[in-house]
Amino acid sequence: MNLNEASKRAFEISKKRKQYKGDGDDTIRALKHCAGEVVEAVDAYDNWSMLDNPQGRKEEFENELADVIICILSVSGSEGIDIEQAISRKMLINEGRVKNGLCQ
Predict the structure, then answer these.
(1) pTM, two decimal places
(2) For residue range 78-95, what is the model confidence (pLDDT) as tens digits?
(3) pLDDT of residue 52
């Protein structure tokens, strides 16, 4: 999957769902929405092993993780960010931290 293409697609879907209003607060509103999606993923994970149908709960958790990523992709699409490049750059930074013993 090409993340930059997915980013553009996620943004287009968000616009069609009227999540972007063009009022200057779109990115803040979208990031708050992403935070809510993370909370939903946490809740889904917490419930995963606690009920009778762990496979169904795993699928719910997977769906919530996908929502988090889609939300972030939509934000990167709205801001014109090359998300593949940003991820690659950040992974190199994180790897460097591990090599230098800077991670906890």
Answers:
(1) 0.84
(2) 999 999 999 999 999 999
(3) 65
> For position 88, what pLDDT does the model report?
97
Cα–Cα distance between 9 and 74 in angstroms, integer? 8
Neighbours of 11 (CB within 10 A): 21
3-state secondary structure of 39: helix
Domains belonging to the chain, first-starting first, are 3-99 (1.10.287)
Place of tokens 């946490």: 42
Dihedral over alpha carbons 56, 61, 62, 63 (to 10 degrees) = 90
Phi, psi of 71 (to 5 degrees): -60, -45
Q: At what angle do helices 83-99 and 3-16 cross, to 10 degrees?
A: 130
**Hunting for tokens 């994970």 — which residue is that?**
45
Amino acid making up residue 47: N
Tell me how far apart the alpha carbons of residues 101 and 87 are, in angstroms, rounded to a whole number.
Answer: 21
